[in-house]
Specification:
2 copies of one chain form a homodimer. By secondary structure, the first copy, chain A, is of the alpha+beta class. Chain A is 60% helix and 12% strand. A two-stranded antiparallel sheet of chain A has the order 1-2. In chain A, strand 1 and strand 2 form a beta hairpin. The relative contact order of chain A is 0.16. Chains A and B meet through helix 1, helix 2 and helix 6 of A and helix 1, helix 2 and helix 6 of B.
Chain lengths: 97, 97
């Protein structure tokens, strides 16, 4: 078992990460739209997590030069491929926790 | 997505947990045998993780009243069913990290 497992498990184990990814599996969203689906999370926490996920290349931050500027977040391929992983964690959690 | 997901992801995200479970998927082991397979981990860290996993009912601690006493650790059903979860994390990690 290599350090890549630990690195992946570390990302998934962070609070809110799973939920943010799940929300984005539904398609691109603005910050406010993600927030609305996870109302218990603070703005600061969401900002921190989004920056982290962006630096890990799990989400993209797309800026559309409209007036006013529109910013949307979307999953990368790397992020989208977390779907079966998150589902397997969820399935185990529902059965055993 | 319910708190059960967060609880499950929290367990899986802790350093060494995945490796300990992987070692025990190979069958019951003594403390020393687990340690030999994860030499980078300190005794204290392994002790702490084992206690945690025991309290979460993921591993059993079996005491055999021999001379000297033999103590072995084994996965419970709850622990064994983490196998596909750990494999999916590993697969993603190997591909993307």
């Amino acid at each position: 078992m290599c350090p890549k497992y630990e690195a992946a498990a570390d990302i998934l184990g962070k609070k809110w990460t799973g939920r943010i990814i799940r929300v984005l599996l539904g398609g691109p969203k603005r910050f406010k739209e993600i927030k609305e689906q996870i109302p218990e999370m603070s703005d600061k926490m969401l900002t921190d997590r989004m920056k982290e996920l962006e630096s890990q290349n799990i989400i993209n931050r797309n800026v559309y030069p409209e007036m006013p500027v529109r910013i949307e977040y979307d999953l990368t391929d790397k992020g989208r491929e977390l779907q079966p992983v998150i589902e397997s964690i969820q399935k185990w959690g529902e059965e055993w926790m």
